[in-house]
Amino acid sequence: MTPTKIVAYVAQVPDGIKITTLLEELGLEYEMRLVDVSKAEQKEPWYLEINPNGRVPALTDVLPDGQLVKIFESGSIMQYLVDRYDKNHM
Fold first, then answer.
1. Residue 90 domain-assigned?
2. What is this structure's pTM?
3. What pLDDT sits at residue 90?
4. Is 85 in a helix, a strand, or coil?
5. How far apart are CA 88 and CA 82, in angstroms?
6. Is 48 in contact with 8 (CB distance < 8 Å)?
7. 19-49 in b/e burial notation, b at 16+ Cβ within 10 A?
8. What CA–CA distance (Å, rounded) separates 39 from 78?
9. Could you tell me the EC number(s) of this protein (predicted)?
10. Domain for residue 27, yes or no?
11. pLDDT recorded at residue 39
12. Rounded to whole angstroms, how far apart are CA atoms 45 and 38?
């Protein structure tokens, strides 16, 4: 697996599953953080700093220069992962 500093904020919903499936297919190391939507955890201030829409999924990544990238919406997350990590379009 390729080492990264990716954290995937997901729940057991189709959009969250898509993100973790793509991370696995790309062979990337990542931390998975389950968001408890039954307790409205996605509306807590710490999560809203990552995703102001207060919805799951979201993803953070740290670039080589140390910059923290925050991405939300499953389509945007998937596009980011492919653009950044799938250079050979496997």
1. no
2. 0.90
3. 65
4. helix
5. 10
6. no
7. beebbeebebebeebebeeeeebbeeeebee
8. 26
9. 2.5.1.18
10. yes
11. 96
12. 16
